Amino acid sequence: MKIILGIESSCDDTSAAIIKDKFLLSNVIANQSVHNAYGGVVPELASRAHQQNIIPVVDKAIKDAGIQKSDINAVAFTRGPGLLGSLLVGTSFSKGFALSNNIPLIEVNHLQAHILSHFINEKGKDKATIKFPFLSLLVSGGHTQIVVVRDYFDMEIIGETIDDAAGEAFDKCAKVMGLDYPGGPVIDKLSKDGNPEAFIFPRPRAKGVNFSFSGLKTSFLYLLRDELKKNTNFINENKNDLAASLQKTIVDILLGKLRKAVKETGIKEVTIGGGVAANSELRNRLNVFAEKYRWTAHIPEKKFTTDNAAMIAITGYFKLLKGDFVEQNITPQARLVF
Ligand code: KG4
Ligand code: ZN
After folding, report:
1. Are 310 and 290 members of one domain?
2. pLDDT-derived band of residue 126, with 50, 70 and 90 as boundaries?
3. What's the gap in Å between 157 CA and the centre of ligand 1?
């Protein structure tokens, strides 16, 4: 029996989770509302808020799990990629926790953790087992990648964005519409009452299974600029249609490339991960694609798509089984690749 404490602090969510042999016992997340007024994450404020949140969040995770601190066999933390000041808080806390409790320390790559979040189990909830090799469409605020996953730690990025990430496209377009940060969930909600065919945006021509979203962002901006000249109330009168059309375009681009990746690799076992994987249109359309093209699609629960420590703890669990530990001189890495 192994019990892992996972710590996530790569961006603006402070999270701690306890996993016992692949089963989640607790997952506590403190969001930082301090950034809302700025329309994006302010790194200095994020790191300060992590410092305030980390101890109460860990304390709650241990209590919610119904265990004692002394039951924990290892601590796993996000080493990167992410904001350096934010990563430092989780890394330093984890080092101190490992040292004072005399347990091993495990570093985790945040992106690998998003992909491995599929392996989190919860008591009383059955889920289909995912088979290697599988393809993961990893879509977040900072990354957009298609990854071939041959084994837990044998992953190869076969396509990625050449400019903005999909989450960034949602957030930046939402910002020019005057919507709150993060814009992805707001666009998702507005889209429910909008016509996805109301506005047509150009499709990028990125090579192979690579992505590009900067052109979409520019054409969205130009559309608003031109229409606002004619009608100053344009955004307000069309916000649902604008959101639905933008969302449809982004999802079309993502699934179009995923389909290409399936064709190129012959791998039909498919997953999605990262914050944008919470998008309802992406989730619905992936199921439609899976049925049509005979893929096996694994769609994670929404709570495991955005940043959380449960995914760090499960990744840590697989590293614990391998005895893959790090020493106290480990440092966070803002740009960590795998
Ligand atoms: O994985 P994540 O929590 O943090 C990063 O590692 O970036 O992803 C955050 C991103 C943001 O860009 C946010 O707007 C987007 O995920 N997001 C969504 C939805 N929920 C979160 N985008 C579209 N639809 C959603 N429902
Ligand atoms: Zn993330």
Report:
1. no
2. confident
3. 20
- Going by C-alpha positions, the residue among 329, 298, 326, 328 that lies closest to residue 109 is 326
Tens of pLDDT, residue by residue over 82-121, are 999 999 999 999 999 999 999 999 999 999 999 999 999 9
Give the HSE-up count for residue 61: Cα atoms under 13 Å, Cβ half-sphere.
Answer: 32
The boundaries of the domain holding residue 154 are 134-302
Q: Based on the domain organization, do 175 and 42 belong to the same domain?
A: no
Q: Which ligand is nearest to the CA of 12?
A: 1
Q: Which residues line ligand 1 (CB under 6 A)?
A: 11, 140-142, 167, 170-171, 182-185, 188, 274-276, 278-279, 306-307
Give distance in angstroms: CA of 8 to centre of ligand 2: 9
Ligand at shortest distance from the CA of 180: 1
Question: Using an 8 Å Cβ cutoff, are 22 and 119 in contact?
Answer: yes
Answer for the pair 67, 4: CB distance below 8 angstroms, yes or no. no
- Supply the residue whose CA is at minimum distance from atom 14 of ligand 1: 184
Q: Is residue 60 part of a domain?
A: yes
Tell the residue nearest (CA) to atom 1 of ligand 1. 275
* Nearest CA, atom 20, ligand 1: 185
Same domain, 293 and 187: yes
Ligand 1 atom, smallest distance to 274 CA: 1
CATH number at residue 190: 3.30.420.40
Neighbours of 63 (CB within 10 A): 12
The CB-side HSE value for 159 (13 A sphere, CA atoms) comes to 25
56 and 68: one domain? yes
Q: Which of 276, 305, 307, 335 to mutate to test the pocket of ligand 1 (most atoms within 8 A of CB)?
A: 276
| Same domain, residue pair 143 and 111 | no
Query: Domain count of the chain?
Result: 2
Q: What local confidence, expressed as pLDDT, does residue 58 receive?
A: 98
* 82 lies in the same domain as 165: no
Q: Among 24-33, 36-45, 183-192, 212-221, whose mean pLDDT is lowest?
A: 36-45
Take atom 3 of ligand 1 and give the residue whose Cα is closest. 306
213 pLDDT higher than 90? yes
Residue 55 lies in a domain: yes
Q: Burial, 231: exposed, middle or buried (Cβ in 10 Å; 0-12, 13-18, 19+)?
A: exposed
Q: Does the predicted model carry a pTM greater than 0.90?
A: yes
